[in-house]
Amino acid sequence: MFTGKQLRRLILPLVLEQFLAISVGMADTMMVAQAGEAAVSGVSLVDMINVLLINIFAALATGGAVITSQFLGKKKTDLACASVNQLYLVSAAVSVVIMLLVILFRGGILRLLFGRIEPDVMENALIYLILSALSYPFLALYNSGAAIFRSMGNTKVTLYISIIMNVVNVIGNALLIFGFQMGAAGAAAASLVSRILACLMISALLLNPRKELHIVRGSYAPDLRLIRKILYIGIPSSLENSLFQLGRVLVVSIITCFGTVQITANAMANNLDSMGILPGQAVGLAMITVVGQCVGAGDFAQAKKYALKLLKIAYLIDAALIVCLLLCQPWILQLYHVSDEAVRLARTLVSVHNIAAFLIWPVSFVLPNALRAANDVKYTMLVSIFSMLVFRVCFSYILGYQMRMGAIGVWAAMILDWIFRSVMFGMRFAGGKWQTHKI
């Protein structure tokens, strides 16, 4: 169903797009670093909340991508287009509700998740959280639009929009952080403007009726049948992703007990480590499109073949990038302009993460997308939630806090989480039960 050339045309723009998406957070953190470690810590704490909520939007978009890909595989373009409208409707409603709740309860959310934070860190976190929340609806709609273009196998559009979004964000950071000395507020405001622009651009493109998938004008009433199909995939994926990210937030709340240096080192390491697994994340997105269309066509032999091929690709390109990061990390970490102690700890965390990621990360996080594309979402949800609670949260507390290993103990617990996931998802895929689920 997919030639090697088609896979390359699908994956390469996704890799570049994922790099650009990660660079938004890196640009914010690096440029905010000029305002001091309190600003970096405040931004990094809020980014953990942002990632948690953004993953809800991404999961809803995944639900829409799976459904539209399967409809395309079945050659039912009319239903695929109708699902575009319903995805936009659901994403808008959910994101607006989340935005309002975050703004209303911002202080309580930060205190609940992170406990007692130093006053200057809290001040920066509150400002950054309010402006970030205002961007949620625009980001949710952009994610939905991007998922639709990926379902069509057209990843160049989202790449071009990502380039524009990043350029606007970096220019905005430079102007507001350095020019107007706005610190964390400047970083958040620049991100808000760039996300509004991206949302408007991708939505305008989807209004074109000549595209294989598009927004059907005048058809905005809720279609409960299609919404249920989207939510069948989207709700378990949302629960899985949001609870996983909540686990990460709880883990960071443990790290906050170790002081500003460890918070800062953790934030720096998270940024670099995200780059190391970035190609795998891109391949995971491609997996939804490719396996989803094979499942829609009822060809599970092809679905398994392409899943294994994409997993191999994820390993190869992740390995290449991880080697580059390990070689270049001493110079990259110096760009943050923080204390030598924070740099040394960040270097250790990056090394531990990347070595483990080279071995087991793709099976833990790329392969499950093949299961999701085949509607096997409840299994992936249950495994992910169990692993997050037992290994990532409980063992982080035991190793990091009780055994006083600090951030290194927390990251060791993360690797235990990966090992468990890789075993469970590998067994599920090899067993073939994932091929028996239907919506």
Task: Give a description of the structure.
By secondary structure, the chain is mainly alpha-helical. The protein has one domain. The chain contains 16 helices and no strands. It has helices at residues 4-32, 37-73, 77-104, 106-114, 119-134, 136-151, 156-179, 183-206, 224-255, 260-276, 278-296, 300-333, 340-365, 368-373, 377-402, 407-431. Helix 1 (4-32) runs antiparallel to helix 11, helix 11 runs antiparallel to helix 12 and helix 13 (340-365) packs parallel to helix 16. The chain is globular. The two termini are 22 Å apart. The mean pLDDT is 86.
Amino- and carboxy-terminal Cα gap: 22 Å
| Tally of distinct domains | 1
β-strand amount: under 5%
Return Rg in Å: 21 Å
- Provide the residue-averaged pLDDT: 86
Q: Structural class of the secondary structure composition?
A: mainly alpha
Count all strands and give the number: 0
Low-pLDDT runs of 5+ residues are: none
Percent helix, as a range, is over 70%
Q: What coarse outline follows from CA principal-axis ratios?
A: globular
Q: Tell me the major beta sheet.
A: none
H/E order of the elements?
HHHHHHHHHHHHHHHH
Instruction: Supply the number of helical segments.
Output: 16
Structural key phrases:
single chain; 439 residues; mainly alpha; 84% helix; 0% strand
